[in-house]
């Protein structure tokens, strides 16, 4: 990734922008099919779109970017496609570490990575460890992630604490529960962007986006650029956020 001269640009106050943006990156395969290309080309273009989204996030001084890379349901795809995605993920981790370090990006994966092979798990742990003290953009990759899984694993942790007598059942509140989710260290999601024309959440951050603004676009993910990203931010800015109040 190249983020030349981004960190020194003057910005408006970040209060004009969402602090935490989450993106459902949908449409890689359809983009390839529409152009008569192999699905792998669509994913490669999708990686370029992600790099541009990270670049734009730095430019706009966003605090957190969370992207849906591989859901728990994606294992149902063909073995060849899943293997290609795993290899692509491994390649990105190894090729982008220097850029994460250079531009102060903190990298984190949310999801059950125990399903991945040891080589990929080790790469994830390595990049997370080497960037843990970076205090710039937090880049979360949701991999083998599902919102239902996240809630269930949180419930299991709470039950374990209650059984051990560490936590009393009456102490379990919304704030308490949030501490046991994979995003426990993060601020809430302000804006969810979904590309590809579908208007659904697809099991993504179900608890965390209860009061997020939702922005849907027909643009397929490989064609996602800074102009569409800015449109989504403009949409967010135009919203009056009442969080269930009047």
TrEMBL record:
Keyword field contains Cell wall biogenesis/degradation: yes
PROSITE patterns hit by this protein: UPP_SYNTHASE (PS01066)
Cofactor(s) for this UniProt protein: Mg(2+)
Reaction(s) the record says it catalyses: 8 isopentenyl diphosphate + (2E,6E)-farnesyl diphosphate = di-trans,octa-cis-undecaprenyl diphosphate + 8 diphosphate
Residues binding Mg(2+): 26, 213
EC primary class: transferase
Keyword Transferase attributed: yes
GO biological process: cell wall organization; peptidoglycan biosynthetic process; polyprenol biosynthetic process; regulation of cell shape
InterPro entries from the UniProt entry: UPP_synth-like, UPP_synth-like_CS, UPP_synth-like_sf
Database matches in Pfam families: Prenyltransf
Function noted in UniProt: Catalyzes the sequential condensation of isopentenyl diphosphate (IPP) with (2E,6E)-farnesyl diphosphate (E,E-FPP) to yield (2Z,6Z,10Z,14Z,18Z,22Z,26Z,30Z,34E,38E)-undecaprenyl diphosphate (di-trans,octa-cis-UPP). UPP is the precursor of glycosyl carrier lipid in the biosynthesis of bacterial cell wall polysaccharide components such as peptidoglycan and lipopolysaccharide.
Record's protein name: Ditrans,polycis-undecaprenyl-diphosphate synthase ((2E,6E)-farnesyl-diphosphate specific)
Species of provenance: Buchnera aphidicola subsp. Uroleucon sonchi
Lineage: Bacteria, Pseudomonadati, Pseudomonadota, Gammaproteobacteria, Enterobacterales
Gene designation per UniProt: uppS
